[in-house]
Amino acid sequence: MKIACIGGGVAALYFAIAMKRRQPAAAIDIFERDSADRNSGWGIILREPMLEAMRRMDEASHAAILARAVSWDQIEIRHKGEVNLLSNQFGRSTGRHALVEVLRARAVELGCRIHYSSPASAADLAGGYQLLVGSDGIKSGCREQIGAAAPIVRVQSANRFIWLGCDKAFDRMVFDFQQTTHGPVWVHAYPFSADKSTFVVECAQQTFDGFGFGRRALSADLARLEGIFASLLGDASLTSLSDAPHEWRQFEQIRCDALHHEQMVLIGDAAHTAHFSIGSGTRLAVEDAIALADSLHQGGALPEALARYQRQRSEAVDSIQQQALHSMQWFDRIIEHYSLPLAAFSRAFLFRSLGQAA
């Protein structure tokens, strides 16, 4: 089978690996719009169910990923000057750039071809391939093509967030909620290497407007955030992938009622997104990739295989998206919980993805 992946992120790369493991004769081309040296991003969470699925699929890349991962066993909740330290909360993460490097190398080793600086569309590739895998991320053009045949459901967070890095490796996952003159500002931080951490800041629109965030060079916003989180950061500084105000965004949770149409199928963020507060975006991408490869390997006509993939993924994705939606909405309504004492606030926080306070 000749397969083209439109987009060269984690979903596409892992699908290519999984497909070559299942069918070594498959011919797979990956079209990545960016150059080979433009591989950026901060840390990503490595969920244990995902890692186990990766181990079963391909031990070589699994071992290489673990070698570049860091782990923690505590979550720290900071709220109104108090700290609640929760033990037995194991987690892992790695840098997105490190994960992509491992997956690129393994995909090429298995015989896949990666075409860098090669933006592609379904119209460009349809005649030369039997299957087109839409793996072009959250701003997917492939999704819009399939969306003409079936609804796309979008739910936007009321809050603003920005995904940053800092030059300090925390030894645990930290949620720091700071009260300011313009309202609460909070951060979700975790290490992803020996000397760096992901630092995701979020606040309500009213707070965003009150500080004037997004109206100037981003460096000014970073300086203000360093002041707000000084007790957590110490001497560490915050960094962004650019100095553009548009780095501040509102998260949009997306679900496609159809994951395939004709010879096109969607995986990863092109197919569905889940709010970053539950750390499952990479898990969805990898599990999509494995499910698609397995479904194709089971045989039958292409429409049958793609329909099987959609059936297999629907229930699992719906469950994760429902948890993510509850979590997103909890943060959207954080002012309802903010006056709680630390213990009660921590319980509400920990149970947020279940849609209940305790």
UniProtKB/TrEMBL annotation:
Keyword Chaperone annotated: no
GO-annotated molecular function: FAD binding; oxidoreductase activity
PANTHER family: 3-(3-HYDROXY-PHENYL)PROPIONATE/3-HYDROXYCINNAMIC ACID HYDROXYLASE, BLR0106 PROTEIN
Zinc among keywords: no
UniProt keyword annotations, A-Z: NAD, Oxidoreductase
Protein name: 2-polyprenyl-6-methoxyphenol hydroxylase-like FAD-dependent oxidoreductase
Domain FAD-binding: residue ranges: 130-322
Record organism: Pseudoduganella violacea
